[in-house]
Amino acid sequence: MINSEQIAQVFEYLNKRDECPTDNEYDGRMGARISSIFVIMVTSAIGTLLPLLSSRYSFIRLPPIVFFICKFFGSGVIVATAFIHLLEPASDALSDDCLTGPITEYPWAFGICLMTLFLLFFFELVAYQMIDRKISKESNLENGNGAHTHSHFGDESMYTKKVKDEKLKKLEDDEDDEADEIRSQDSHAENKLNPYPSHFAHAAEHQDPSVMGTPVNDQSKEQYYGQLLNVFVLEFGVMFHSVFIGLSLAVSGEEFKSLYIVLVFHQMFEGLGLGTRIATTDWSRHRFTPWILAIAYTLCTPIAIAIGLGVRESYPPGSRRSLITNGVFDSISAGILVYTGIVELMAHEFLYSGEFKGPNGFKRMLWAYFVMCWGAGLMALLGKWA
């Protein structure tokens, strides 16, 4: 039974809807706003295309140390973007004073971010299982439905040891001295064996026959497809965010000048993080895809600015619909970048890859860590203005 108090709450909610601004703070300066389309396009292109061009063409080849810095600086930028430039604005938008009803009764920005994180993890689990089945099926077809049917997610020691033993047996039949040398080398290698194998990857001593001679080279197919999946997820999260900041810049008011300057660096740094990940992925089977991804990021914010200028008289960034839309999509993007940043760019790169193995591995790891902190700190500082 509906009582008078509930009816009063409904009318209060309907009246409250009009309290959200229905206009924007656009104050002219059309020339500067149009210039932002091209300036941000250029800086975004520098961030995404420079690492890609450097990895493809020798005449602009960057020194290894520069690429190293760009890679881990970009990782820090992406992690900071998730928390400072996405999650915090999403929380502000979904808790705005002009909003009422269920949207204000729960910290939805953090809830949506959390749900996105777990959904993304679930989808990645499913994707890797599908990839594993596909690779196993291809392997069975190529090897006569009998050979090499082990699980790609199983215990590596069960089959790496078998391969080594077969190698030793063959050498023992030929020359005992060579067999002793191989035993010594294998024993030394096992002592240094990484206790954390690469993410969904085979051990270095074993490689599928179906992988031999393919563009994947020494990477396992799981790791290869996993890298592709991670790059696409990262691109998706970054582009979501870039569209909304372009719209906001187009209709901003007094803060336009500071927002313009900050977004120039914001898009370049964010593009650098995305561009280095695209450049370090093997695209030999999809040679046009990295260029499409880089160009898509380069164009998304300028196109959003142009659209914002086109609807500058009618687009209200502070309206109820805009606040909820921006808040929800920023929360989703935050969840994507939190997952990608923490799992793929931090844990995987520092703990589960072989990049920091060897005599100077720990020193290189510390350098990478401090460069990443530098990127995160600089991007977090930009959050003071945008």
TrEMBL record:
Keywords: Ion transport, Membrane, Transmembrane, Transmembrane helix, Transport. The keyword Lyase does not apply. Residues 181-191 have a biased composition (Basic and acidic residues). One of its GO terms (cellular component) is plasma membrane. It is found in: Membrane. One of its GO terms (biological process) is zinc ion import across plasma membrane. InterPro entries: ZIP, Zn/Fe_permease_fun/pln. Belongs to the ZIP transporter (TC 2.A.5) family. This is Zinc-regulated transporter 2.
